[in-house]
Design a protein that fits this description.
360 residues; alpha/beta; Rossmann fold; six-stranded mixed β-sheet; two-stranded antiparallel sheet; 8 helices; binds 2-acetamido-2-deoxy-beta-D-glucopyranose; His_PPase_superfam; Phosphoglycerate mutase-like protein
Length: 360
Amino acid sequence: MKLSAISPALLGLAASVHAYTVNYTTVTGYFLQDETATDASTFDYTAVNFGLLNRTYPADKKLKNAESLTQWERFYNQVQELNDESHGDVEYKVLFLGRHGEGWHNAAQTYYGTPAWNCYWAELKGNGTATWYDAELTENGVDQALVAHNFWQKEIDEQRIHTPDNYFVSPLARTLQTANYTFTDLKFPKGSAEFKPLIKELFRESISIHTCDHRHDRAYIHEMFPTWPIEAGFTEQDELWNGVTGETNDAQDQRSTKALDEVFFTSASVKKDTFVSVTSHSGEISSILRVVGHRTFSLNTGAVIPVLVRAEKLVHEKPDTTTSTWTVSAHCTSPPVTSVAACVCQSSAAPVTTALVTSF
Ligand SMILES: *[C@@H]1O[C@H](CO)[C@@H](O)[C@H](O)[C@H]1NC(C)=O
Ligand SMILES: *[C@@H]1O[C@H](CO)[C@@H](O)[C@H](O)[C@H]1NC(C)=O
Ligand SMILES: *[C@@H]1O[C@H](CO)[C@@H](O)[C@H](O)[C@H]1NC(C)=O
Ligand SMILES: *[C@@H]1O[C@H](CO)[C@@H](O)[C@H](O)[C@H]1NC(C)=O
């Protein structure tokens, strides 16, 4: 499908334009990941209580039993207090942004090297032994999701952490699998929300020409996890991926903003639903972090980052409805020259921008 054929309605933009825009900001001072001194490349969320800083909170003063509560219990209370004390147009939520475990596309990118991967291999569905069209998790990727599973269980047992009130998941296979391995069979605290993630189109990975960003059709996804809800309006076929053009950062940030707009201010009791899990991807989580004004923080495969977000409706501001255009990426039609760190095709052939894979 050509870019010109993608209407705003298809992207879901026209359908839910609000009468307001939302100002999203990251509230710092609670997590190590917010601090410039924290090195994302070596950060292990499981070693430091998800990064929650050891500190007291203003809301502790109203607690009779603060000393007997854990850091996560007092933090949850603090977030409730922030919500109770703010007016109706302000909402605080803690987003637990989880990146999927290693997928076959990650393994292949390492195997071929990034230039050759982007320049040719990623545009194919696989290489005969591995498939990376809507890539599934490798064994290592499953293990990484189980690390997240075990860590959540430890936090439930030791910190009595409040588990998510709502779960969202990208429709790509690797995130569906990751959410499943992470949250299925946890011994949840009494009264916690059931794990039934909403499959949400707009939390998918950056849409590039790579086949790993092309999702399966709705029927396939439903068959994978028959009991999980799929959001209304989710199309049978993937109508966003086209193999020719991909989202720019601006276009993706508009999409991420819309996704968040569908998570915040959504029902009468929203303020009670403060902890939200989103199982997504590295590119999409980077985009969400940009939208909420968080510093750049790259996640390793399988890692999770909690972010305290303040959202405020700006009711007098008209939403910006201009949509950023997508862009083409040049690539080769056969394996490229690998001795250079760039996209150089064999026999001095010029890179093309036509789709390599057209049939699905
Ligand atoms: C958005 O919220 C932040 C934090 O409350 C504030 O500093 C900023 O001025 C707000 N921006 C707009 C456009 O209202
Ligand atoms: C807070 O203290 C506990 C116990 O001393 C420790 O295990 C944890 O890593 C500390 N958290 C941070 C973010 O430093
Ligand atoms: C295909 O890619 C995988 C990496 O995902 C690699 O392990 C395998 O050896 C490759 N197969 C061929 C035939 O090159
Ligand atoms: C979902 O997770 C459970 C528990 O780890 C596992 O037994 C099951 O095979 C997973 N299902 C899929 C489709 O991956």
